[in-house]
Structure formats: C-alpha cells, structure tokens
Amino acid sequence: MARLIRKTAKVSGSGGGKINVRGREWTKEDLRELKNHSREKTPAKTIAKLTVGALRQKAFILGLPLGRSSREWTKEDLRELKRYARQKPPATTIAKSMKRTVAAVKRKAITLRLSLGRPVRKWTKEDLRELKSHLRKKTPVTTIAKSMRRTVAAVKRKASRHGLLVGHRR
C-alpha cells in the first residue's frame, strides 16, 4: 500500500506537486497489504506518512489493530477493571492504580460495555455565590456554564437544588 500511495502521491506533469489522496478508493490489494501490516504490527506512521489518518480509520472500521506497543489485558486485569466499574471511580483513578493509560482503560471499558464514573468537581461556596450573582443579573444559563466551566445540566441542577430559578421560568 505504501508503494501504491507513493505512486499516486505525485502529480505527473504539474511540477511534481502532491495530490490529495484522501478520496482514493481502497483496492483489494490495499486491504490485503493493510491486513499484513496489522499482523506484523507495523506502526501506522511507517506504513504511510501521507495517509496515517485514513489508514487508522480504515483499520478501525475493519477491526484491525495497528502496531501499538500495548500490554495485553490478563483475566485478573479484567476482573480488577470490572470491580472498579462497580465502584464508579473516574477513569483517571483506575488508570493510575492499574498502571495503564486513561485511553486504554476507557477503550477496554467500552469493549466490555462497562460504565465508568466521571470526575466530579465539587461546588464551593464561591462557586455558589458566583452562580447566584449570574442569576441575579439574568445571565443566560449557557453563558453561566461556560464561564464556570461546567455543563448546562450541572448549573441547572445546582440552581434547582438551591431553589434558584434558571432560564425562561422567571
């Protein structure tokens, strides 16, 4: 495939400029070569520098892993991840204790259909004062959420729990 990409990467007769290879159809040979690279665990960047994104996307669609230096998940690792999932701590906490990346933990949880907890940011007294100030000024809830770096739902939930009116209900 890399050979094929190099052939199509130059425009003949136009001063040797590069063309956009993103729209090129995947041939049977391309797919065969991609599968071979997957089996050999060849890193995507080595296969083709021009089309790393397209290559990774196609491999993902086909369910093929590309040359990652990843650690296998043992049965004990899976049991530990499932145990954590029942407790609902954030993925960052799980990753740290299992000595894995957050992305690896999230990816494995998704494949096992496990739900992990989300990091919860506590509301301080200062946050509540700021929320009340915004609501007195009739600031739109989306603006409040952005300025406080919280979700709209979190702002509405907090306001509701404190008996504060938000949005069109005023």
Name the descriptors:
56% helix, mainly alpha, 0% strand, disordered N terminus, 170 residues, single chain
Give the SSE map.
Elements: H1 2-8, H2 28-40, H3 44-47, H4 52-62, H5 75-87, H6 91-98, H7 102-111, H8 125-136, H9 141-148, H10 152-161
Helix pairs in contact: 6-7, 9-10
Listing every helix as H and every strand as E from the N terminus to the C terminus, the arrangement reads HHHHHHHHHH
How many independent structural domains?
A: 3
- The overall pLDDT average reads 78
**Percent of residues in beta strands?**
under 5%
Number of strands: 0
How many helices? The count is 10
Overall shape: it is: elongated
Question: Which regions are unreliable across 5 or more consecutive residues at pLDDT < 50?
Answer: 2-20
Distance between the termini: 62 Å
Structural class: mainly alpha
The largest sheet, given as strand count, sense and whether it forms a barrel, is:
none
- Rg calculated over all Cα atoms: 25 Å
- Approximate helicity band: 55-70%
Brief digest:
The chain is mainly alpha-helical and 170 residues long. It is 56% helix and 0% strand.
Detailed description of the structure:
With 170 residues, the protein is mainly α. The chain folds into three domains: 2-62, no CATH class; 75-111; 125-169. The protein is built from ten helices and no strands. The N and C termini lie far apart (62 Å).
